[in-house]
Amino acid sequence: MAADGGSSRGAPIGRLLVLHENPERGEALARMLRMAGHTVTVIGEGPAAPAAVVANLPDLVLASPYFEDPPLTELVRGIRWNLGHDLPVLMVAGRDEVLPDVADDVVREPVDPHDMARRVGSLLRQRFARRALQQRIDELQGLYRVSWAFSLAGGAESFFGQLGRHSADLVKARKSLVLLYDGKRREMVAQAPGHGVSPRQLAMVRYPVAGDARARWNFRTNGPLVANRAQQDTRLLPGLAAALEVESVLAVALPRGPEIIGLLAVGDRLDGRPFDDADLSMLQTVAAQASVGVENFRMHEQITQANQQLLDLDRLKNDFVAMVAHDFRGPLMAIRGYAEVVAEDPQLPPERVSEFMRTIVDQTDDLARLASDTFLITQMEDGQFEYRWTEIDVGGFILDAVTRIHTDLAVAIDVPLHFPRIVGDPERLRQVLTNLLTNAIKYSPGGGGITIRARERAPDHVLLEVVDQGLGIPADQMGRLFGKFERVRSEGHDRISGTGLGLYICRLIVEGHSGRIWAQSSGSEGSTFLLLLPVDPRLTRADARDAESSASAPSDGQASSTGPHSS
C-alpha cells in the first residue's frame, strides 16, 4: 500500500510500475510520475519481469501495448492473480492502437503529464477506496461471527420489536422501548417499533445526555432509574412520561464495557403495582444480554452499508464506462461517416459539403463538451476546483445566457428593476443557467413558452426560476435526479438523448456557491427549476468554516438537491 493511500485533499500517492519495451521511454514516463510524488519503478522486457513486478507490490501498472516478452496480457493476468484482481492498468498508446482487454484506462501519445497524473489519481483513488471498504468489512465480519447472539434476519423493526416484547413480558409491563445513543445529536433516540407505544409517541422520545446529572438523570453516574410517580419525577425530562402516557417507568443502561450504548425502558406494570427490586434485577439481566445483540445489529448494519458502497462503486464505474462507450461512439461514428462521404464523392454539391462539414463541427463540439464536463466533475469531486468570484448584474447575465441559446420557443425574462447585484463565478453560473434552459427546450417537444424569473429572498439571498411547459417529471423520480448519471425514465423522456451529467454538474456548482437547487412539477406537464443563491457566497463559506472550527453545535450535513430532467 502506498504511504498516502488517498488523502481527502489532492490526488493520492502510490507505488507505480512502468512496463515498457523501450527503457529510455519508460524512464521518461517514470520521471513525469515522480514529479507528482509517486514512487516509480521501470521494468523492461525479459524472463525476470513477472517476478520483479510481484516483488514490487505495485498499486498501479503503467504499460505499453508493445511489451511482448512475456506477452503483456498474460503478464497482467498473472500479476492480478498474485496481487489482486483490482490492480489497475493504465495503457500508454498511440492514437490508433487497439488496446488489450486488461486495460482499465488509456493515455495517448504524445503524453500530457497533467492528463496522465489525473488518470493515475482517479484509478488509485478507486482502488484505495475499495481496499479501505473491504478491510472494514473483513474487520466487522470477524467481530460479527464471534459475537453473534440474536437473529437479525428480520431487520431493525423485527429485532427491536422482539427485544421490546421480550422485555415487557419478563417484567409484566404494558409498554417498552429501546433507545440508542446518537453521537452526532448527543442524545438517546427511540428505535422503532416500541411495544405498546404509538409511532407518534415514539417520535417524541429524545433524551439528551449532556448536562448536570443532578438536574437530569445520568445513567453513567446514577445507575438505573425507577420512577413509580413518573409524571411528577423531576429526574425525567419534563413531559416525557406524559407523552408516553405512563405513570411508572423503569429504565436501565445497555452497557458495552465502560460505555453506555443505549437504554432499555419499560412503563406501567399490567397489574398496576409499582416496579420493585426484582423487576429492576430482571431488566438489568435482559439489558446485559441485549447489549450483545445490539452490537451485533449495529455491525450487521455497518457491513450491509459497506457492501452497498462497494456495489455503488462498481455501478458508478460501469455506468461511466457505458456512458463513454455510448456517448462518444455516436458522435465519432457520425464524424467518420460524413467525412468518408466528403472524401469519397468529389462530385458532391458544395451546399452538401457545407452541410456535412457543419455536422462534423457540431459533433466535435459535443465531444469536447462531454470531455470538458467529465473533467470538471473530477475536479469538483476532488475539491481541486477554484471559483473566480466577481460581481454579476443578474438581469444582464440572464439576457446574455438567453441570447446564446438557439431556439424557436419564446423565452420571457422577468427581473425587477434595481435588482441587487450578486457575487459568483459568472462562467459556472452561466453553465448552470444554460443547462437548465437547454433542458427546458429539449424537454418541450410540444412547444410552449419558457420563463426566467429573479426574485429577492431575505436574508441576503436571490431566487432564480426557470419555468417550462414541457413533459413534466413523475413524482416518484423527483428525488434522485441531481445524482450522477440519473435521468427521468418515461416513454416521452426516453426518446430524448442525454448523459445524466448536466444536473449533477448544476448541483455541484450551486453547492459550490453555498446555494440550493431543486425542482417542482405537476408530474404530467411543465416543470420549474429553482436556484436559491446567497448574494455573496464568500461570506457564507467563511461562516461555514468558522462553524466547523468551533466546538459548538455540529452541522446537520444535509443537502437538498432534487430534480427533474437531466441533460
Mean pLDDT over the residues: 79
Q: In terms of per-residue confidence, which ranges show pLDDT below 50 for 5 or more consecutive residues?
A: 1-9, 142-153, 548-567
Strand composition percent: 15-25%
Strand ordering within the main sheet: 8-7-6-11-10-9
What is the CATH C-level name of the largest domain?
Answer: Alpha Beta
State the separation between the terminal residues, measured CA to CA. Answer: 39 Å
CATH level-3 fold name of the largest domain: Heat Shock Protein 90
The main β sheet shows up as:
6 strands, antiparallel
Percent of residues in helices: 40-55%
Level-2 CATH architecture of the largest domain? 2-Layer Sandwich
Q: CATH superfamily membership of the largest domain, which one?
A: Histidine kinase-like ATPase, C-terminal domain
- Radius of gyration computed on alpha carbons: 31 Å
Number of helical elements: 15
